[in-house]
């Protein structure tokens, strides 16, 4: 079916990509804008993939004329969220005098150099634009040289996004869709307010009155013999009116709109919540390897990695994310040392074959089978934002073959790319041939693995990721989808991804470990997923390092490393361990140090085991506690689940610190099983914390 998918919920000024699903490259697809708000001058062209940019708030309706018939799509545009913002850095901080060659690189322009130019204003380089509320990092880059770049972080003030959860139930022949709208957070709210599924406080609700809008999925309109009866946050209909399936989308609307949530009801009354992540993900620990370095000094191959899978079971992890294993071009050495540790595999030559140095497809499938035998799922690194410049399609495009020129995005006659990655040009999703080819890639690998980590997900249109989710989940509803969106994007949770990089926590852990921020700064980072608009059921990947970042222990020291790792296991979400993190490695891509820090390895095993054994650590709400400490190195919070409460105290300093908790706690650490020094007072406990303490509350 070529229908373009679920309704879209955007703000005025956003670019809405319109594309047929499962396209036939040589077929005709025509788009028509059939309805728009009063005063709108929005228009569509005659391409098979079009872009609608709403210019007025309201509902837009577009029609796709495809080989399988006509399809309608609703686009709801909310008011423009952008505010003026000015970035500037001292001119003498950038070794360049010519402002014409200083470019802006940031998430708001997808890090495409050549899009936004800085201007010289006295003693500063300046860039002015309009952006929605949030945190931004603008990088001023002279001559595409990031090593000479300077950056400024700015927070654009404004209301936080609302959030929403939608549930459905069928009783006595009536379908009931019930939404729970949650207001955006403010800085004075507690961690408990940000912690998950608990309803907002009355004071919080009063700060932002929320409406709820319901939309029937356009794909189900023809078979739905009725209308939704809407009463506030509840919508109902007769089950007899439901065709094969009825999908309903709900949005919370206040000062800013929420990410939409979805509930579906089948004709037999079965309920699905397609935005929810599979249950196993909330319980899992992810282990990530730089594929060609994991085997240590042994030459990397699927066979050599397969021999080491028992280690993952011994460690206690549940899923293995491997950096790319397809045939790719990667020089083993670059002048900046970026590729130390061997080829990275992110510049694809052949999407349908494995890298010759690693082994055959059959040998990879044997590795997957062995992982499954040891209770480990396999996560494939899906790289579909770009290809290698040496990919056959890129070479044909460079040679001037028009059929393949359209496979890539071009700017000023040169293939577009992110950052200064000239060797990996961006694929053009306005091309039906590209979409068709990459959907084949998705289908090919989804049959062989348990999930995708999606590289440079921010560079692939949201509509395409929605189609990827639909295709993979239709075959395996347990399939895992993780997006690399840096910084993370709550819109990527709207029928797209299960798990997201927790970039605010990552940066906060670095700032605390470096001594640039007090440990209490982590409490703000823990609120950010709610403040940014992620719905409570979104899963965040908690990590301290990965294959693109320096090692935490090298930058922040051993003591802070223990506290940081403990943080990732103490919070809701999915903890990720990057190979060698558990052995104290100090380089992020070199050979695995199998004989490293045995105490640190044992500590990782204990943290994984403690989380596996504890419902409260896996599923508990994040709640605030009363605590105090003599310096800025410590912080405390708690988790609660079904009457059980565990208090977590962290210390990022080099020496033990006394943390006073405003409640009585047990003196046995749940992770290590060791007793901690504890002194109980009247309704409080002072505990001596080396790096961390996980203690049951007695209240």
Explain this structure to me?
The chain is an alpha+beta fold. An eight-stranded parallel barrel has the order 21-22-25-28-29-30-31-32, surrounded by four helices. A four-stranded mixed beta sheet has the order 1-6-5-3, with no helix packed on it. The protein has a four-stranded antiparallel beta sheet with strand order 13-14-17-16, with no helix packed on it. It is globular, with a radius of gyration of 26 Å.
Quick summary:
The chain has 699 residues and is of the alpha+beta class.
Determine the strand fraction and express it as a percent band: 25-35%
Report the principal-axis shape: globular
Rounded to an integer, what's the Rg over CA atoms? 26 Å
User: Largest beta sheet, briefly?
Assistant: 8 strands, parallel, barrel
- How many beta strands in the DSSP annotation? 40
Q: Taking strands numbered 1, 2, ... along the chain, how are they ordered across the largest sheet?
A: 21-22-25-28-29-30-31-32
Q: Can you tell me the residue ranges where pLDDT is under 50 for at least 5 consecutive residues? A: 187-207, 332-341
Q: What share of the residues lie within helices?
A: 10-25%
Write out key terms for the chains shown.
alpha+beta, 4-stranded mixed sheet, 8-stranded parallel beta barrel, 699 residues
């Amino acid at each position: 079916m070529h229908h373009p998918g679920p309704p879209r919920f955007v703000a005025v000024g956003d670019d809405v990509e319109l594309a047929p699903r499962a396209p036939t490259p040589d077929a005709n697809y025509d788009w028509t804008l059939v309805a728009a708000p009063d005063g709108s001058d929005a228009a569509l062209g005659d391409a098979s993939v079009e872009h609608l940019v709403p210019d007025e708030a309201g509902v837009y309706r577009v029609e796709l004329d495809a080989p399988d018939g006509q399809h309608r799509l609703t686009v709801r545009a909310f008011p423009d969220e952008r505010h003026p913002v000015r970035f500037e850095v001292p001119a003498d901080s950038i070794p360049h005098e010519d402002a014409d060659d200083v470019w802006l690189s940031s998430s708001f322009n997808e890090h495409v150099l050549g899009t936004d130019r800085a201007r010289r204003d006295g003693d500063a380089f300046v860039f002015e634009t309009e952006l929605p509320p949030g945190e931004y990092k603008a990088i001023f880059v002279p001559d595409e040289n990031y090593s000479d770049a300077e950056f400024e972080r700015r927070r654009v003030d404004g209301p936080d996004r609302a959030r929403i959860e939608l549930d459905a139930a069928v009783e006595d022949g009536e379908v009931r869709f019930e939404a729970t709208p949650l207001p955006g957070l403010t800085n004075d709210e507690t961690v408990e307010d940000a912690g998950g599924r608990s309803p907002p406080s009355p004071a919080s609700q009063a700060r932002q009155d929320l409406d709820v809008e319901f939309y029937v999925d356009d794909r189900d309109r023809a078979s739905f013999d009725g209308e939704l009866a809407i009463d506030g946050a509840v919508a109902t209909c007769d089950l007899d009116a439901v065709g094969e399936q009825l999908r309903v989308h709900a949005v919370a609307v206040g000062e800013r709109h929420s990410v939409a949530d979805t509930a579906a009801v089948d004709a037999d009354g079965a309920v699905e919540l397609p935005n929810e992540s599979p249950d196993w993900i909330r319980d899992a620990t992810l282990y990530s390897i730089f594929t060609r370095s994991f085997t240590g000094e042994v030459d990397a191959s699927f066979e050599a990695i397969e021999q080491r899978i028992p280690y993952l079971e011994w460690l206690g992890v549940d899923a293995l994310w491997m950096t790319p294993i397809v045939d790719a071009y990667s020089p083993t050495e670059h002048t900046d040392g970026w590729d130390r540790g061997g080829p990275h595999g992110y510049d694809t030559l052949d999407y349908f074959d494995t890298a010759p140095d690693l082994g055959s497809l059959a040998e990879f499938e044997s590795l997957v089978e062995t992982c499954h035998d040891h209770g480990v799922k396999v996560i494939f690194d899906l790289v579909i934002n770009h290809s290698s410049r040496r990919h056959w399609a890129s070479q044909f495009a460079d040679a001037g073959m028009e059929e393949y020129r359209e496979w890539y995005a071009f700017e000023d006659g040169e293939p577009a790319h992110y950052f200064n990655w000239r060797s990996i040009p961006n694929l053009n999703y306005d091309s039906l041939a590209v979409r068709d080819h990459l959907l084949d890639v998705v289908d090919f690998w989804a049959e062989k693995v348990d999930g995708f980590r999606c590289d440079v997900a921010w560079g692939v249109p949201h509509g395409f990721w929605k189609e990827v989710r639909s295709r993979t989940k239709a075959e395996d509803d347990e399939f895992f989808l993780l997006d690399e969106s840096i910084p993370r994007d709550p819109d990527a949770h709207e029928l797209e991804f299960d798990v997201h990089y927790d970039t605010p926590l990552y940066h906060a852990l670095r700032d605390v470990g470096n001594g640039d921020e007090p440990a209490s700064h982590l409490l703000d980072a823990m609120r950010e997923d709610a403040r940014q608009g992620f719905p409570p059921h979104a899963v965040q990947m908690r990590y301290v390092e990965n294959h693109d970042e320096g090692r935490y222990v090298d930058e922040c020291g051993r003591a802070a490393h223990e506290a940081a790792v403990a943080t990732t296991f103490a919070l809701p979400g999915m903890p990720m361990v990057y190979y060698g993190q558990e052995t104290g490695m100090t380089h992020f891509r070199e050979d695995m140090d199998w004989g490293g820090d045995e105490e640190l390895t044992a500590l990782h095993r204990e943290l994984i085991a403690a989380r596996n054994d504890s419902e409260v650590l896996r599923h508990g709400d994040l709640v605030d506690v009363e605590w105090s400490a003599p310096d800025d190195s410590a912080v405390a919070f708690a988790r609660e689940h079904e009457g059980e409460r565990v208090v977590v105290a962290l210390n990022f300093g080099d020496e033990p610190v006394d943390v006073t908790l405003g409640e009585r706690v047990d003196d046995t650490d749940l992770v290590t099983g060791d007793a901690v020094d504890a002194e109980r007072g009247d309704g409080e406990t002072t505990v001596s914390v080396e790096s961390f303490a996980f203690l049951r509350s007695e209240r």
